[in-house]
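Hello,

Following up on my earlier ticket. Below are the two sequence lines again, exactly as submitted.
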Amino acid sequence: MREPAGIEGAIAGIRTRFLGRLHGHRDALAALGEAAQNATPDVVEAAIFAAHKIAGSARMLGLPTLGEVAFQTEVQLTDDRDNGLAPGSGSLTQAEALIAEIDAALAGHSG
Amino acid sequence: MHILAVDDDPIILEIIVEVVRSMGDHEASIAESAMEAIGLINTAPVGTYDCCLLDIQMPGTDGIALCKMLRGRKDFRSVPIVMLTAMSDKRYVDAAFAAGANDYIVKPFEVVELQRRIRQAEQRAIRTQAVPGSAQAQAEATGKPDLAEAFHIFDVDNLIDYPALENYLPLLSQPTLYNTVALGFHIRQAAEIHGLCSGLQFRGLIEDVAETISDTLRSQEFLMAYAGRGTFLCVVQENTIRRRAIWSTRSISTCKGSTCRSRRRMACRSVSAPAALSGFSAIRTTLWPRV
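Thanks for your patience. The regenerated structure is below:
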């Protein structure tokens, strides 16, 4: 069986690749922010997808706050969508908070 | 153990691969969709995969549908299937277990927790896996099970393995548990009947009783399992119980041989008392959350 340090090292490598993917997710969330309540279904779906992906992995990669904010963002956007609504101010604020968390995560792990 | 992990998130797949590698003897194959998984399975020799880890929310065919598809194949009937998903709503949990999942892990998961559940699945795989058509599989299908053995019963709606039921209950939230009842059904004189029957007859009898209980409960939200010794445990959402009349022992006692399918009829006739079920009310227990 691999030593604990071994799997920690492997997870650290995955975390680096995960952080690399955050740029694309950030773009999807930023597009939602720009379109705001005029966002097309495609833009909303892309933002939900981004939040879902971050929520699923971040907490397992030692980024619990990012994961929690992503989860809340996914829940809010999904609620609006399922109720046939355009993203409300609550969802947009949550998406902005997620973008801020992404920036913080990227800054915290740069270099 | 060779594990097939299916998830549309490559990062999750990477984590699973690393966790599996960290456990030593295991290896993992990965697929990013249900269709890719089916492709891998169809091109690999029968018996290649000993365990599946399935995400639920995936584009195209979701993990629950994939679980159902796998359970429809003879070579995956006994392979442990663990759902690994962000979907924690009860409807997903229920649907996954009813589709044949043995265990359910909600993301995010701890590495040690995933390792523990994989080991659990490995134990199950060792216990239950036999190559279809092999002498071992034949013996398992026709050999006489021990009276206490909670053997697997196939093709009965909402019937799951007993260990799977044990995995299911801790997933229920506290409010759900307050509205959940457990019903026990016991075949009277099960030990004597077991002594009189061949293996095939005893299995047929248990399957018939399972089917009768399942048919009777079909208007409810429930899961049930065979616990061995002629005993069944059913977990029912109390707010779905609307008509008390359906709980009468009369409606339970419909299995008298003549209604059974041909293979099982022999078993029912020869023991002559397949529906000697004790009343459910004696064992009706509200499930309280463990503190």
